[in-house]
Amino acid sequence: MQENRLLVGAIYIIAAELMFVSMGASVRQASVELNNSMIVFARNVVGLLFVLPILLRLGVSSLYTKLPHLHLLRGFAGTGAMYCFYYAIAHMPMANAMLLKLSAPLFMPLIALFWLKESLTLRLVWVLAIGFSGVAVILAPDSGVINPIALVALTGGLLAALAKVTVRRLSYTEKASLTVFYFALSGLIISLPPLYWFWQTPDLDTTGWLLAVGLFATAGQLLMTRGMAYAPAGQLGPFTFFAVIFGAIYGWLFWNESLTATTLVGATLILASAFINAFSRNKNASPIGS
Questions:
Q1: Is 207 in contact with 260 (CB distance < 8 Å)?
Q2: Residue 185 belongs to what domain range?
Q3: Which residues contact 195 (CB under 8 A, 6 or more apart)?
Q4: Distant-in-sequence, close-in-space partners of 59: CB < 8 Å, separation ≥ 6
Q5: Of 8, 204, 255, 280, which has the maximum CB count within 10 A?
Q6: Interhelix angle for 36-58 vs 2-30, to 10°?
Q7: pLDDT tens per residue, range 249-290
Q8: How many domains does the chain have?
C-alpha cells in the first residue's frame, strides 16, 4: 500500500516538474524584454487569477485556514526561490539551472528531519553526500572558482526546499487548491513593492510568454501540492530530478545548448543520489532521526 502511494505521488511530481521546466522556458523567452521583478510579479498575478475562480466556486468559506503562518512562510520561501530561479534561467544554460534549482531535494530531507520529524537513515546520509558532491562540481566548474550565478540558483534550491517541506506540512490539513491560492496571493503581495523601481510595460508577444509562465507554474504547483500529500518529502524529492532531463531536452531543442563535461559529471552524481535513494532504500536501515 505504501509503495502504491509513493508511485502515485511520484507520477504527480514528475508531471509537476514538466510544467516547471515549461515555465522556465517561458521565463527565458520573457526575460529577453523584461526584468526579473516584472516576470515574478506577472507569474503571481496569472497564478492568482487561475486559482481564484476554482475557490470562489466552492464558496468564500473555503478560503478559511487555521495555518496562516505556514502559508506566509511558504509564500516568502517560494517567492524568494522564484526570484533566484528566474534570474538563473535567464543567465545560465537550462540544464545547469535545473540541476541547481533541483538541489532542493537534497535539502528537503534535512529540513523535514528537524521540522516534520521524518526519519533520516544512514543510507540517506551517503546519498546526500553523493548529491552534494555533484552540486559542488556544478558550482565550481573551472579551477575551483565558484560561479556567482550558480550560487544564486543554489540559494533558490534551498528556499524551494523550505517551501516544499512547508507544502508537505500544509497537506496534512489543507486542500491543494487552497495552498496554491495562498501562495499566489502572498507572492503577489511580496512581489508588488519592487515594481515601484522596476516596472516595464510588456508588448503583446511578451505578455503571451508571461501568461504561459503563470499557467505552467500554477499547474505545476497544483500537481506538486497534490503529490506531496501521498508520501514523505524525503521520498518524493528525488523524483523532481526528472526536470533535469526535461531541461536538457528544452535547452538542446530551443537554444542549441550542449552538455559540458562538468555538467554531465555533476548531473550523474546528483541523479545517482536521487535514484539510489528512490529505488534502493533499505527497510532495515538505521534511522538517524525520527
A1: no
A2: 2-289
A3: 37, 38, 41
A4: none
A5: 8
A6: 130
A7: 888 888 887 767 777 787 778 777 766 765 555 444 433 333
A8: 1
